Amino acid sequence: MTNSGTIRAGMGGWTFEPWDTSFYPAGLSKKKQLEYASRQVPTIEVNGTFYSSFKPPTFAKWRDESPEGFIFSLKGSRYVTNRRVLAEAGPSVEKFLTQGIAELGDKLGPLLWQFAAAKQFDADDFEGFLKLLPAEQDGVALRHALEPRHPSFCVPEFVALAAKYDAAIVCAEHADYPQIADLTGDFVYSRLQMGSDDNEACYTGQGLDLWAERAKVWAAGGQPDGLAYADPARKADQKPRDVFVYFITSGKVRAPFGAMAMMDRTRR
Questions:
Q1: Assigned domain for 223 exists
Q2: Could you give the CA distance from residue 169 to residue 226 in angstroms, rounded to a whole number?
Q3: Could you tell me the CATH number of the domain that includes residue 136?
Q4: How far is Cα 97 from Cα 138, in angstroms, rounded to an integer?
Q5: How many CA atoms lie within 13 A of 130 on its CB side?
Q6: Is 14 within the bounds of a domain?
Q7: Host domain of residue 49
Q8: Alpha-carbon distance 164 to 185, whole Å?
Q9: Which of 164, 149, 146, 152 is nearest to 121 (CA)?
Q10: Which of 36, 67, 106, 111 is the most core-located residue (most Cβ within 10 A)?
Q11: Is 138 left (phi over 0), alpha (psi -120 to 50) or beta?
Q12: Residues 6+ apart with CB under 8 A from 140
């Protein structure tokens, strides 16, 4: 039965000092935090891979400490995305992919390539970058998500390039960065960044209801209303898609609860 893709909601990382008291049980060892967190939400976005490299045993440890079906999304290295000429990032892409991420096996989720807020769209350079992203690494399939944060990417040419290389454009909700909700890959990746610590579940109940319904539409293969599209005239293939939704940055203290509340709503 494939009428709908799988919806997974999570947060960024599992190590955050305020969570020691707001999210984790009293007295839980830090060594047990991933084991606990990965049993409360079905996915986590790993931000640490943006700043540092890890060794294969670390990825294997993450794999073994998380339950069956859990998914890790990894943020691509800053040495790949924070450069003037993206098409020259080949050695950095290779270094990132060969550090041991394949140890995650079927727990490896999308790779998030986040670009500097000042990085502007250059079609030739960006296509050169997309050509550097392989479909697999050491026998493990790779999925790529693109998060530009400059308004120059809000054009049909960018959407067409992402679709050509089967990469998903991140649908972000952010106070400053543009939203591009066009469907270009075989999965959906959304980052919700307008929560608040004053809300018990990061977002308001109304906000959670809205995004849960959007996730259901995405999973069923549709394009939700009320979002910003760079190419509104383009209609993506209507097919079931897996959906990844992450509560990031604003409202981080309550982000795990936002993810859990989202999962509860998508099951209704």
A1: yes
A2: 17
A3: 3.20.20.410
A4: 9
A5: 22
A6: yes
A7: 7-266
A8: 9
A9: 152
A10: 111
A11: left
A12: 101, 102, 104, 105, 106, 108
d(CA 16, CA 31): 13
Lateral strand order in the sheet of 43-46? 168-169, 144-147, 108-114, 71-75, 43-46, 7-12, 242-247, 187-192, 171-173
- Structure-token match 């709908």, residue found: 4
Q: How far is CA 124 from CA 84, 131, 160, in A?
A: 13, 11, 13
- What is the DSSP track for 17-47? TTHHHHTSPTT--GGGHHHHHTTTSSEEEE-
Please name every residue paired with 46 in a beta bridge, in sequence order, or none if there are none. Answer: 74
CA 193 centroid distance within chain: 12
- Taking only the tens place, the pLDDT of each residue in 119-153 is 999 999 999 999 999 999 999 999 999 999 999 99
| Whole-number pLDDT of residue 257 | 98
Indicate the pairing of strand 71-75 with strand 43-46: parallel
> Could you tell me if residue 184 is inside a domain?
yes
- Rounded distance between C-alpha atoms, residue 7 and residue 147, angstroms: 20
Across the strands, what pairs with 10? 43, 246
The confidence band for 3, taking pLDDT boundaries of 50, 70 and 90, is confident
How many domains would you assign to the chain?
Answer: 1
Residue 1, domain member (yes or no) = no
Residues 6+ apart with CB under 8 A from 63: 103, 104, 105, 107
Q: Which residue from 200, 222, 214, 118 is spatially nearest to 172, judged by alpha carbons? A: 214
